[in-house]
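REVIEWER CHECKLIST
Item 1: Sequence provided? yes
Item 2: Single chain? yes
Item 3: Sequence as submitted:
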Amino acid sequence: MKKWHIVLFLMITTYCQLQAQSDKATVYLLRSVGPDQYVPYFTYLDSTLLCKLGNGKYSVHEVAPGEYKFHAQYKGKLKPSPETDLTVNLESGKTYYISVNIATKAFAKGSFYCEQLSEEEGQKRAEVFKLDKKCQ
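Item 4: Structure as written out by the authors:
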């Protein structure tokens, strides 16, 4: 009889853990290889720092559903702007791929921007990039 209680308890615990995991969205942040290879890009979800993302790396984050603004910049005081923000409505159980980029101009500062990728494109890039384990 005690064995059945233990088995039932383990099944309920496992179910609750799986349910809690599916209540969140999975977000991949991907930083392409490019200029500023030795400088991390500070990536934000609204005003919360998610990761200092290195060149050619990606990070994975579990996020509660809702509408969020993704933003990237060099270190320093948070300076989001409508031109560089990407607003995404995250749904539970879904996976999103966001590329963090910089557009450079000759003899001028670059400007960051984030773009949402298709699942196919995001998976392709994640296979080539290296997981940034410091962000988790």
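Item 5: Key structural point noted by reviewer: The radius of gyration is 18 Å.
Item 6: Recommendation: ____
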